[in-house]
Amino acid sequence: MQRRHYTSAPVSARRVWIIVCALALAVGLAACGQVSDPVSSENDGVYVDAGPITYQLQVSRQLNQYTTEDSQYLSGLPEGQGTLTPSQLWYGVFLWAKNQTNEAHVTADRFTIVDTTGDVYHPIPLNAELNGYAWTAQTLEPSGIEPAPSTTAANGPTQGGLILFKLPTAVYSDRPLTLNIYPPTGHPATISLDL
Predict the structure, then answer these.
(1) Is 131 in contact with 94 (CB distance < 8 Å)?
(2) CA 83, 155, 66 angle in degrees (round to 5)?
(3) Of 49, 51, 86, 193, whose CA is between 20 and 30 Å from 112?
(4) Is position 183 within any domain?
């Protein structure tokens, strides 16, 4: 009877191949949600740099003033801004920011949304004393984040500061929408928004 000899080379090659595939998968997953120039509107979690601060879109969506969660986002509206016409909707953009530099910097306090027809929409200012979710420009020390960890916004469902817009329902026909972030210094950034 003749004895066959097996080598371990095929097993080793298979193990190397599995390791290579696992590393490729890990690199791919590590990049999830960190695309700075998204190609679609499904981009919650995208990071962009506006000036020296890095911003992350936590979520953006239409708000329903009649639900318990969303009604809280609409507190602190200026007088006369609390109602919608039948052709308007509330739209919330929830941002997170981090100062990844070695110096203190102020976060953005100016934002716009632009639709595909070129119409520009400005946010409704919210009273941050009445609305714990409202985005307000903050000075962030190195590694500082907004919203700060101990705040209502950071511990809320979106974990982001709210920038509130009143938009016409016609924007559904004029998608995608683009959020522009204008920092106090440096270059602005844009994020494509889901609606």
Answers:
(1) no
(2) 25
(3) 86
(4) yes
pTM value > 0.85:
no
What are the pLDDT digits (tens) for 87-130?
999 999 999 999 999 999 999 999 999 999 999 999 999 999 99
Peptide bond preceding 176: is omega within 30 degrees of 0, i.e. cis? yes
For the domain that residue 99 is a member of, what is the CATH number? 2.60.40.1240
Angstrom distance (rounded) from CA 105 to CA 141: 7
What are 64's two structure tokens? Answer: 């329903």
> From CA 76, how far away is CA 123, in angstroms rounded?
13
DSSP three-state, residue 85: coil
Is the backbone peptide bond immediately before 168 cis, with ω within 30 degrees of 0?
Answer: no
Structural domain count of the chain: 1
